[in-house]
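Subject: for your reference before the review

Hello V.,

The reviewers asked for a structural picture of the protein, and I figured it would be easier to keep everything in one thread rather than splitting it across files. Below is the amino acid sequence we used in the manuscript, unchanged from the supplementary table.
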Amino acid sequence: MRRALVVAGVEFRAFVRTRSFVIGLVLPPLLGALGGFAAWAARPPEPAAPPPVRIAILDRTGSLFDSLALSAARRNAGLGARGMRLELEPVASSAGFDVAERELENRVREGELHALAEIPADAGAASAEPVRLRIVARDATRGDLAGWLEGALREELRTRALRSPGVPVELRTRLERPVLAELQAPAPAPGEARGLAPEPRAAPALVRRLLEQLGPRQKLVIAGPLAFILFFAVTIAAAPLLQAVLEEKANRVSEILLASISPFELMLGKLLGSLAACGIAAFVYAGTLLAILVLALGAALPLGLLALFAVYLVLSLLLWGALYLALGAACTDMKDAQNLMLPVMLVQILPLMFMSSVATEPTGGLARLLSVFPPSAAVAMLLRLGHDPAPHLLEIALSLALLAASALACVWAAGRVLRVGLLAHGRSASLREIARWVRTG
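And here is what came back from the structure prediction:
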């Protein structure tokens, strides 16, 4: 093990001292910042807020305008900066309503007003007959105005009817009784990993209110980014290892090391050192995303879930790092490596391909299979923890055990491929030949 750590230290120093490592660490955020600045500088000017929609209210009851104006104010307060605002204008004419009506229709015709709404005098009467609300508008497409006026007037008339002296207080209370829904998961079953699942109700107040609007999907909104961060970190940390082995194979330095160290120790040392170097970029980018997530969600991310995330991340890095190192050892150039990378990359993105299936049926057979299949176990299990019921603790333990065993097996197999591949200089191997190298060593 000491020799493996020595190799790991050499690999780490060799990685971080290269100019390409520094450029690869600094260039992506710099390009991202420049791209963001360019998008901000080239953004089109924000459209101006549309002019308010002016509606004249000819209230023949003499008592409904104030209620409609209050309803319009509440509606305007909930709009964004570019929403269509309503301005209600009361009709007051000493010449009488008929004269005012003709004047208002002329203003609508000339475009000074958008609409004229006439509320009949019997609107407030105790009657079951429908209220005939007359609306005069030049633009026939403004049906949304009619819908809003109908709804606002209906709500006001209903409220007045409930508050009338003839309605008993008990009946009025029952009719105005609100209904508030509170979503709760069933009690955890024996062995269910509910303690490792996200807890949206423990989030800060502002975030908790936003999550409550998502209903049953709020746990998935917390667990989903964790799965994405893990996949992102593994991809940017493990993929560069292939290129590193290709360069070392061309220099034929490892042939000397194989004379004094076992293939497993050499592979483990190269894997640890290379992952430590490439993990710096993963820590910078993925760690920043994780830190933002933890700061935003607070106690909604339990410590057990973060610890499980860390274990899955380490084991996944070992698994995929060993696979990419083995591919690099079996090839002579990047062109040959690309042919072998395709099936490996298809397996790597397997959990993303079935993400919707796991989210739809988290307790189904496919989701359970992906949770214990080592290449997809980490992402699938994190996604399943975002649902109720949570996976069983035995499933998580089995998933971790299989992933750990697979990672060690890949390191061992990659060591055998590395020994043969580095010595087989000048030619590449197919997948079938790589499997033979693993069997025969």
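For the response letter, the relevant points are probably these. The chain has a mean pLDDT of 76. The chain has two domains: 53-168, 193-440.

Happy to draft the paragraph if you're swamped.

O.
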